[in-house]
Amino acid sequence: MLPLLGAGWQGFGIGLGLIVAIGAQNAFLLRQGLRRHHVALVVVLCTLCDSALIMLGAVGVGSLVASSPILTKLAVYGGATFLIVYGGLTLKNALKPQTLNTADAPDALSTRAIVTATLGFSILNPHAWLDTVVLLGGLAGQFPTDQRVVFTGGAILASAVWFVGLGAGAAWLSPVLARPKVWRGIDLVIGLVLWTIAGTLLWSRGF
């Protein structure tokens, strides 16, 4: 019983430590939470995608991706392109004298666009594959089968707790951050974060 609990807590702690870092997925969820626009949908999709990646890593897919130069390059360049494009759109919004848009605002993203963007940030994100599939998968592989299942469950629980907390917290703070200057600053920071992540990915590959 104690080894199982230990594996679960390790999975939760390591999973939380990896996911809390500011990244593209978290930045997008934060932005949607502040807009109060389809927050629950984004939280659910982020959690499901992360859970799927964690389980893929636990069954050994992470080592396959890490050992294939072609798959690694596809992940890096595809993810960087997505981040550059979306970061540019966010920076463009930062130049507009706008207020915080809610779900009924005319320029709010459609449900389909929200789903597409969330899946992109969750799946076309090399950092997610590196942290979730390769790293967590490698750690899970060190445990016996029963403990590996509990470790994986702990990591999935950490993702769910974080995404729910981030989405709810951002929505709660949205009235305070609804001023145009503050919102433009948020868009500026998020856009720069996305471009920085993309630049780091390309730099690491000698682009």
Automatic annotation (TrEMBL):
Membrane-topology descriptor: Multi-pass membrane protein
Segments passing through the bilayer: 12-30, 39-64, 70-89, 149-173, 185-204
Keyword terms, alphabetized: Cell membrane, Membrane, Transmembrane, Transmembrane helix
MF (Gene Ontology): amino acid transmembrane transporter activity
Any Pfam family: LysE
Subcellular location: Cell membrane
GO cellular component: plasma membrane
Chief location category: membrane
Top-level taxon of origin: Bacteria
This protein's name: L-lysine exporter family protein LysE/ArgO
Taxonomic source organism: Rhodovibrio salinarum
Source lineage: Bacteria, Pseudomonadati, Pseudomonadota, Alphaproteobacteria, Rhodospirillales
